[in-house]
Amino acid sequence: MTSETKVDVKALELEHVLQIYRRQPVVFDRGEGVRLFDDQGRSYLDFVSGIGVASLGHAHPALARAVADQAATLIHTSNLYFHPLQGELASRLSALTGFDRAFFCNSGTEAVEACLKFARRYWHTKGDTSRTKFVAFDHSFHGRTMGSLSVTWDAHYRAPFEPLIPTVVFAETARPADLAALVDDQTAAIIVEPIQGEGGVRPLSTALVAAITEACARTGALLIADEVQSGSGRTGTFIHSRTLGLKPDVLALGKALGAGVPIGAAMLSAEVAKAAVPGDHGTTYGGNLLACRAALTFLDVLQGGLQESIARVST
Prior knowledge:
Layout: H1 3-16, E1 28-32, E2 35-38, E3 43-45, H2 49-52, H3 61-71, H4 86-97, E4 101-105, H5 108-125, E5 133-137, H6 146-150, H7 155-158, E6 168-171, H8 179-182, E7 187-192, E8 195-196, E9 202-203, H9 206-219, E10 222-226, H10 241-244, E11 250-253, E12 264-268, H11 270-273, H12 289-313
Parallel strand pairs: 5-6, 5-7, 7-10, 10-11
Antiparallel strand pairs: 1-2, 2-3, 4-12, 8-9, 11-12
Helix pairs in contact: 3-12, 4-12
């Protein structure tokens, strides 16, 4: 690609693409392993990994073969029919996470959105329609759809789109003792990232983990773990919440799970899952064959030695 083409790429975007991203002045057109290459052939060590997505690096041979093979076989049929890969992927995720059922979607924010809906549905099914409140935390980031945005802390994300979901309150991570007063018999769920990743890396304190556990036990509020960033093996174990001693009822996965192919998953306990009925939620693309094949390939590589390597090099 020539420099003239690079100018054309930028000009074409400026004219036709919605200007909501502050892009860096570089055009990447190739990747290999941990490196990206721009249109001038310059090599860059990729520390961003597509914002935590490129879990196998770029142009991983096994993923490239799997995606090509699946594209040549069958990519998508919709969720009107069975196909051979959703059940296989759900079974493997159940074994890795300890959850009973999976709902597949297209991204982490969609997975969080599903978790919020299923938490509300759980209480509605039980006949307690007053349980609509969500308790989230300061410095949280859960996504940009209306539900996930409602439980995202920073006001600059939320303010242009308010009013959002009502009955959302934010607890301070630095004040675990205050959580008890915020979680009550109107609370549908507490939502938390086991490691907060917005504007830094903020692990949960043992005191906050204990406060969350106590609040859920006392009130019956569900616990939603947003593991879109911390999950899928990135901390040395597949999910981080149980490493901390948390026992979520619903869990969101995304980002690294597809190794670059868009996929998200909401994992549900049997108790929450049995409250859902056909028509409660849905997606056109979610869990299609291409996305499931990519996720299965990622899991093959992860469980084929990568997970142990992550744990080893991180100590």
